[in-house]
Amino acid sequence: MGAATVTGVTDAHFGEEGGLLTYGSYLRLPQLLDSQHLESDPPAHDELLFITIHQVYELWFKQLLHEAEATRDALMTTAATSGGRDLWKARHMLTRMHVIERVLVQQIDVLETMTPQDFLEFRQRLAPASGFQSVQFRELEFLSGAKDAGYVDRFRGLTAIETERLARRLAEPTLWDGFVHVLDQAGLGTSSDAAITASLRSVAHDRSSYADVWGLAEALLQHDELAASWRARHVVMVERMIGVKTGTGGSSGAPYLRSRLELKYFPLLWDLRSAL
């Protein structure tokens, strides 16, 4: 039977096992909605919220990696004769990342509807699992430019596939590498940090000639700032929830998170403010 004759629908599509595609099958909703399994017994009411929030974070991390990869690739292939087309695409995807990152910050408000007492009903069941073990979050840091091979050694329970993914992120170009390529293609110096800083000053003082480059620099800085905003908001939430207790994965908890607040993906873009 042809697609045109299936329940009168033209161009009908079929999913797994030949079944007609539906909203639920397209989104794999049976599998998705069966992915929240509580560890507490008897079930703690707020554990479902805790699991859902973190699964949603991982979905957004997946999307952010998708956008960051595409942005990096667009920057790395930008040629001096491209007429700005690739830079427009890169800035468009960075803008999408900004919107998603603001959502990540706002999601903490939902998590904070859980009281410390309610969290303690199931927290002990989480050990030794920890948010420190989020491979996608670390991939995003590496891809943005904050590479630290030591984190791979400190991860617990990595699968072979996850180890390979982190190794690939450590080896591949970053968003910063893509931006440096754009500077080079624009005829600006990139041989050293000092040369890049001089180029950035030239761009900043002649924005009419380097509008695309300046706009890209600001978009990258916005990505960096929003990541910092999430880290700051996250540590305050952790302190509100568990104080200075040790993390379930064995980290120092809030003190460790506070040690990450000064992390910057693009330090030269921040230093530029002092050099203008």
> Level of helix content?
55-70%
Q: What is the CATH architecture term of the largest domain?
A: Up-down Bundle
What's the number of structural domains?
A: 2
N-to-C terminal Cα separation, in Å?
70 Å
Molecular shape: globular
Secondary structure tally: strands: 0
Rounded to an integer in angstroms, the radius of gyration calculated over CA atoms is 22 Å
- Please provide the ordered H/E string of secondary-structure elements: HHHHHHHHHHHHH
Proportion in β-strands: under 5%
CATH topology of the largest domain: Methane Monooxygenase Hydroxylase, Chain G, domain 1
The low-pLDDT segments are: 1-5
* Main sheet summary: none
Short description:
The chain is 61% helix and 0% strand. The protein is mainly alpha-helical and 276 residues long.
How is this fold's topology laid out?
Layout lengths: L22 H4 L2 H5 L13 H30 L8 H27 L4 H5 L14 H10 L5 H5 L5 H12 L3 H11 L7 H13 L5 H32 L11 H6 L7 H9 L1
Helix pairs in contact: 3-4, 3-6, 3-9, 4-11, 6-8, 9-11, 10-13
